[in-house]
C-alpha cells in the first residue's frame, strides 16, 4: 500500500500535444505513453478537439470538475458527460472528439492494455464512515475533494484532495474510510 500525494503527481504533455495531464499512477512505474500496462491520470480540457489515440488500450473517463463535455465516439451516439454522470468506458484506439459544454473541465482517465487487463471505475461519496470492498488485485482510491482517514488491514492514514491510495494484493480485502469526501475507485483486473 502506498499513499500518492497530489504534490508528487507527474505532470506531462498529452500524447497529441493538445494539453497537459497529471499522472497519478502508472504500471510499470515510469512507463511512457506507449509502454504502460495501466495508467490513471487527470487532465484539464480547455478547448474542443480530438482525443489522443492509444492502440490496444481501453479507457474510462469521469468528469471531476466543470460543466461537462460531449464525446463524439466513432460508431456511437454523442455522449454528454458531467460531474453527475457515471464514468464512461470506450476504446482508446478509435477516433473520439470532445466538445465542451461551457468552459474547461477536469477529467479522470483510467486506461488498461486490452491484452490481459481490464478495469472498472466507480464514484464513491463519503459522508461519515464507509466500508469499500476491494475485489481486484490492484486498486487505486482517489480522494478528489474533501478529506478522509482510512484503514486497510493494519495500516492507517489520511488523504486530502488530490491524494490517492494505491493498494496491491487488494482482492478480498476492505478499505475502511471515514470523512467527508468525493472519491473514485479504479480497479485494475488481470485476466
What do you see in this structure?
InterPro entries: RmlC-like_jellyroll (IPR014710), RmlC_Cupin_sf (IPR011051), Uncharacterised_HutD/Ves (IPR010282). Pfam families: HutD. This is HutD-family protein. By secondary structure, the protein is mainly β. It has two domains: 9-115, Jelly Rolls, CATH 2.60.120; 118-190, Jelly Rolls. 0% of the residues lie in helices and 63% in strands. The chain has strands spanning 2-4, 10-13, 20-27, 38-45, 49-50, 57-65, 69-73, 79-81, 88-91, 96-100, 105-113, 117-134, 138-152, 155-159, 164-167, 173-190. Strands 1, 12, 13, 14, 15 and 16 form a six-stranded antiparallel beta sheet that branches. A six-stranded antiparallel beta sheet has the order 2-3-4-11-6-9, with no helix packed on it.
- Output mean pLDDT: 94
> How many structural domains in the coordinates?
2
Strand content: over 45%
Mind describing the biggest β-sheet? 6 strands, antiparallel
CATH third-tier fold name of the largest domain:
Jelly Rolls
Name the CATH superfamily assignment of the largest domain: Jelly Rolls
The count of DSSP E runs of length 2 or more, i.e. the number of strands, is: 16
Pairing-aware structural class of the strands and helices?
Answer: mainly beta
Q: How does CATH name the architecture of the largest domain?
A: Sandwich
Terminal Cα span? 22 Å
Low-confidence stretches: none
Quaternary state of the chains: single chain
Reading the helices and strands in chain order gives EEEEEEEEEEEEEEEE
Report the top-level CATH class of the largest domain: Mainly Beta
Helix content: under 10%
Organism: Rhizobium chutanense
Pfam family, one: HutD
Protein name: HutD-family protein
Amino acid at each position: 500500500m502506498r499513499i500518492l500525494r497530489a504534490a508528487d503527481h507527474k505532470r506531462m504533455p498529452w500524447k497529441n500535444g493538445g494539453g497537459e495531464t497529471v499522472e497519478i499512477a502508472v504500471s510499470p512505474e515510469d512507463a511512457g505513453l506507449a509502454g504502460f500496462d495501466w495508467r490513471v491520470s487527470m487532465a484539464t480540457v480547455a478547448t474542443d478537439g480530438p482525443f489522443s489515440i492509444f492502440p490496444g488500450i481501453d479507457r474510462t473517463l469521469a468528469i471531476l470538475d466543470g460543466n461537462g463535455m460531449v464525446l463524439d465516439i466513432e460508431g456511437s451516439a454523442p455522449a454528454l458527460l458531467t460531474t453527475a454522470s457515471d464514468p464512461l468506458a470506450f476504446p482508446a484506439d478509435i477516433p473520439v472528439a470532445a466538445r465542451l459544454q461551457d468552459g474547461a473541465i477536469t477529467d479522470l482517465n483510467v486506461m488498461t492494455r486490452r491484452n490481459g487487463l481490464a478495469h472498472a471505475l466507480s464514484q464513491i461519496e463519503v459522508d461519515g464512515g464507509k466500508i469499500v470492498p476491494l475485489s481486484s488485485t490492484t486498486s487505486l482510491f482517489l480522494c478528489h475533494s474533501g478529506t478522509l482517514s482510512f484503514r486497510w488491514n493494519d495500516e492507517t492514514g489520511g488523504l486530502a484532495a488530490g491524494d490517492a491510495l494505491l493498494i496491491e494484493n487488494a482482492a478480498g480485502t476492505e478499505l475502511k474510510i471515514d470523512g467527508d469526501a468525493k472519491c473514485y475507485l479504479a480497479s485494475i483486473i488481470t485476466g
